[in-house]
Amino acid sequence: MTAEAQPKNKTTAGSYFVSNYPPFSVWTSDKAPEAHAAIQRLPHPETPLGVYLHIPFCRKRCHFCYFKVYTDKNSSEIRRYLDGLTREFDMYADSPIIGGRKPKYIYFGGGTPSFLSPHQLTGLVETMHKKLPWDEAEEITFECEPGTLTEAKLSAIREIGVTRLSLGIENFNDEILELNNRAHRSKEIQRAYDFARSIEFPQINIDLIAGMVGETDENWSRCVEQAVAMEPDSITIYQMEVPFNTTIYREMMKEKGTEIAPVAEWDVKRRWVDEAFRALEERGYTITSAYTAVKNPDSTRFVYRDRLWAGADMLGLGVASFGHLNGVHVQNQKDMGPYLEKVEAGEFPIYRAHTLSGEERLIREFALQHKLGRVNRRYFQDKFDVDVYERFAGAMRSLQDEGALSADDEWITLSRAGLLRVDECLQRYFLPEHQAIRYT
């Protein structure tokens, strides 16, 4: 039985989280020349520029992880990869796509960026600064796995200018962390957090996942209590999904031949997120997206997210990285060998691409901005000369009938119920050819 045929409330194999549009499955290698052409064109001068750096190294591969990661690389292999990153960055810095712009946001993602040593990290950043200074960056985000953090490493991360430290806690229960093959344990969380606080990062975010294998009502309540007690600047909570390229999925196929995942059903995960949001609101936090609660919305921002969802350019550097350049979606070579061969030969390591039509650009921004909980009608009228109330009338009406959203003359506002299942709702805005197809 296919995933589509399974009961709707069951967590089945496949991607659920909508991070881009059109779906990645329609990006193709034969369109790679379109990405190369986009790099050689001058950008629109008002389009912000960002940089994403993929650090694909981890101590262990989480059973639910679907990113490109490696757990078996030695120091010389890591050094070669970092050299490749800087070569790729240099090529972009010298190309027309930069057009005199400086990055407005930088994002170190993974994998585990905090896997790098202080020396490796500072060397990478110093080399890149020589080509394209980051002095105009509004935000520099750095993802961390608590067990990789030492005082020296945190100090180095702070010294390179990181403004938002994101701790991948996911859960506080050691048994659940082990069951899901997380590398860190609970005792490492508070130690890393306390030192990060002591050296005054402007923003500390912690990540939780609702619905990891083994999760229970009682344990989730304890996790929420512990997270709230830490009083981070922001908390991001994801609902567990099981994409096809995960260890969990392979084990599901090997052992039982089923696409129903061994994790909580969707209504349970949504209830858990709602409980967390309510607990955070009671402590003065504000819910600013489908996944995020912030302590002070006047000063706590997510520039990376907000810029991307409003059409910014992004250089996606590193193996399998995703980017967006001059209206073209781009993904790099998805394996280490081909990626390094390309950059070491002085070539952009592009694997596949997709040029967005005007309609796809509209849908992409309209859908993704729903995740913020409110969408401004005039924004789309001014930018695309489209009345989204007319263009998406049918989909909006169905969501209104279900109590997922409401609309007035200026704003579309999602209800809490709509926000908790926003990724499911967004697909109604997709073009017909992009519905009911594989997302990745």
Summarize the structure.
This protein is of the alpha/beta class and 440 residues long.
How would you describe this structure to a colleague?
This protein is α/β, with parallel strands linked by helices and 440 residues long. It folds into 2 domains: 3-307, pyruvate-formate lyase- activating enzyme, CATH 3.80.30.20; 357-440, Arc Repressor Mutant, subunit A. 38% of the residues lie in helices and 17% in strands. The protein has 17 helices and 15 strands. It has helices at 32-39, 75-93, 118-131, 151-159, 174-179, 186-198, 217-230, 247-255, 266-282, 303-308, 336-344, 358-369, 377-384, 388-391, 393-401, 416-420, 422-426, and strands spanning 49-55, 105-110, 139-144, 164-170, 203-210, 234-239, 286-287, 292-294, 313-317, 322-325, 328-332, 350-355, 374-376, 405-407, 411-414. Strands 7-8-6-5-4-3-2-1-9 form a 9-stranded mixed beta sheet. It has a 3-stranded antiparallel beta sheet with strand order 10-11-12, with helices on one face. A hairpin with a 4-residue loop joins strand 7 and strand 8 (292-294). Helix 2 packs parallel to helix 3 (118-131) and helix 7 packs parallel to helix 9. The two termini are 20 Å apart.
